[in-house]
Amino acid sequence: MPVVLGYWDIRGLAHSIRLLLEYTGTAYEDKMYSCGEGEWCRQGAKLALPKNYLLQGTFSHNKLTRKLHACGETEEEMLRVDMLENQAMDFRMSLVMICYNPDFEKLKSGYLEQLPGKLKLFSQFLGKRKWFAGEKITFVDFVMYDILDQNRMFEPKCLDQFQNLKDFLDRFEVSNVSWDSQSTLAPVLLCPCSVCCWP
């Protein structure tokens, strides 16, 4: 039975999971729900769900990545994955919080002022490594690709002073080309309209 990835019809937290599923060639159904009062809100609690059905996003993500062996192999890699996963969520939420805020225009400049400092920390954490945990790709690379890509769409020049982060994005995108010729990953990966919805 293929994995069913159910999420709102936005890029959101599900995008990095989609990328990982595509990368690993995992069969899945991408079930998108309309935001607001829609099918999921009416039916979600009433569904007769199988006992291995995972509702919470981070838990589902972690279980999937363990199953796909995408959490690092050595103790150091696993520690780097754990540290970065939590830091990445904080970074993502800082962008999300302004993008969905009615005072977006007032908050945007403050976000952009602190962005170089945050990017510098990620640049230092990556260092000269090929991937964030080491020489092999792990799920946090999918998460970081998604977050850095969203910030790049938000402010196209934000990575100009962080060559290793730009190289990371390029490496990620190039590795995507050979994943699966039947994949629909490329349009999903490059579609700017699927980034978070700011005014």
UniProtKB/TrEMBL annotation:
Major enzyme class: transferase
Record's keyword annotation contains Kinase: no
Name of a matching Pfam family: GST_N
Domain of life of the organism encoding this protein: Eukaryota
Keywords linked to the UniProt accession: Transferase
EC identifiers of the protein: 2.5.1.18
Stretches assigned to the GST N-terminal domain: 1-109
Span of domain GST C-terminal: 74-199
Example of a GO MF term: glutathione transferase activity
One GO biological process term: glutathione metabolic process
Transmembrane segments: none
InterPro entries attached to this UniProt entry: Glutathione-S-Trfase_C-like, Glutathione-S-Trfase_C_sf, Glutathione_S-Trfase_N, GST_C, GST_superfamily, Thioredoxin-like_sf
Entry similarity comment: Belongs to the GST superfamily. Mu family.
Protein name: glutathione transferase
